[in-house]
Amino acid sequence: MTIEREPNSSSSASPLSTPAVTNFVGAAEPVIEEGPPSPIRQFLRSRGSGGFADKSFAALMLVCALSIFAIVLFILTILILRSRLSLQQFGIHFFLRSAWDPVSGDFGALPFIFGTLATSLLALAMAVPLALGVAIFLSELCPQRLRAPISFVTELLAAIPSVVYGLWAVFVLVPLMRDHLGDILVKYLGWTGFFDGFNIGVGLLTASIILAIMILPIISSIARDIMLSVPTSQREAVLALGATRWEMIRTGVLRNARIGIVGAVILGLGRALGETMAVTMVIGNHPDISKSLFAPANTLASVIAGEFSEATGDMYLSALIEIGLALFLVTIVVNAIARALVWAVTRGTPARAH
Amino acid sequence: MSSNPSHPQPAEDDSALRSPMRAPLTWTRINTARRYLVNHLVTVLAILSTLLVITPLVAILMYLLYKGASSLNLAFFTHIPAPVGEPGGGMANAILGSGIVLALASLMGIPVGIAAGVYLTEFGRGKLLATAVRFTADVLNGVPSIVMGISIYSLVVMQQHHFSAFAGGVALAVMMVPTITRTTEEMLATVPHAIREAALGLGVPKWRTVLSVSLKTASPGIITGCMLAFARVAGETAPLLFTALGNQFWSYKLTEPIAALPLQIYVYAISPYDEWHRLAWAGSLVLIVMIMVAVTLVRIYASRGVLKGAS
């Protein structure tokens, strides 16, 4: 009985607790059913505690969640609809033809596929070793005091807008490549044949370098998270067997995290494939397939950015939208694979604030 | 096995590790020396690569600060762009335009994103649908912004028959949704079940529990997530190219093409005029400072709990 009196004495604090307590104690008569509704019930009703409010709230949340599906379906449908003309005209050969002639209406996406693949893979080749080095440093070697500032700085890189990278590339990287780096590359690596032709600063190589700088923070921060999610007991076990620190990292950390690291790299690839502004500004925008890394080129994304607004004629527009469709599908597949891999590793570890 | 059993074996091994040259050469010792050499080599490589990664960032920020600060003046914030060939002019209209488009995007994107995140943790826990939504959100997050741009162009601009601030807002909103959904979900997942159960046990309806207990507890993290999504789309250029289009003059109407800071930077950066290059640098500095200040401010407030009262 003291239990009943206690909440009543502090009535202003929680009027809600009274019916629960009465029922719990087992007072024979259910207070709510008989007579006029109790003040508590009235209070609850006035605050919207009914089945209706709950159900409509749940429905609203569900609709918002489903809207994410809707967005993806919408994008897919609209891209297919708008690229119908070129889909019908060229079919699958659109992606195998290298002609790009807006005047005569002859379109093929091969040069852009080549440009996208070449820049992305080159960027990955430059970024992945560095990113792994950073991730290893941050997760295994770095003194605790330095870890937060360096992580912050690498994540700052991710916050810089693409167009600002592009601006920097146009005014710093392009002159650097034209006047200094290019000569050095020709001198030492000219024999490979990848550095033939005229070096004007803009081209495949410059675009790849700026891409590498842009995808570095993504790969390194995800790889670091994955390495940190490897249990400490794994490291201790390897160290206890007499391994050096590198052997511990190699056998204890990297081997356990390899699937997730592959996922991080593929995520970086997904970003590189779709990166638009910075690449458009330094790649030279010319649909060529050339062996030389100095040659101007064009990627799937940069051709859309460069030519979409001046596309005259339905066929031109629909060819560009078909390129967008291809880019959409490719990045979806790449991202789905990457996410599945990252999930496979980090599932079960606590969520962290980004 | 050792000739001198009183001498502890580990000490002998240790000295061999420290100076493999002085000890008699055996394959084991060569191997140990090699292992330690590789260890040091990798350590040095990791430190070097970290330095190499930080260098471009410092270079970019320094150069931006140097170029931007030297070309920034009051006119930049008060004037609209000057015609080609005339000195001066600013990006006042672009700053306002960015503000309008971003406000529009936040109005549309943030509620939907948070609601979807709420569904994932509070209603869809363990359901197949929730997993599918989560996966789709992650995948949507990786869709290139230029594809978003041409989709919204086909969807909104082609229907309206003209470029508009509204279309730009929709494009950015769509890009915000998946990011916000995922952070909201992660933040809500950290709210202890006991708190929810306490509220439900007191007879508080579910919707009220979600709004006043779950969301309120997780609000600092959710606000940070929203800010990061905001910062990400604030610098986006590609989705605005064919939706907001850009404008050299003042424009406030949602149905008309509108200027935006990233767009203006892009146009000026690829132009052949020195005066415009100067403005592009100033614009970049302003854009980055705006993004950083917004993110930092909200982080500080969120951690101090000033915004926790908002439910």
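Chain B has two domains: 9-71, 76-309.
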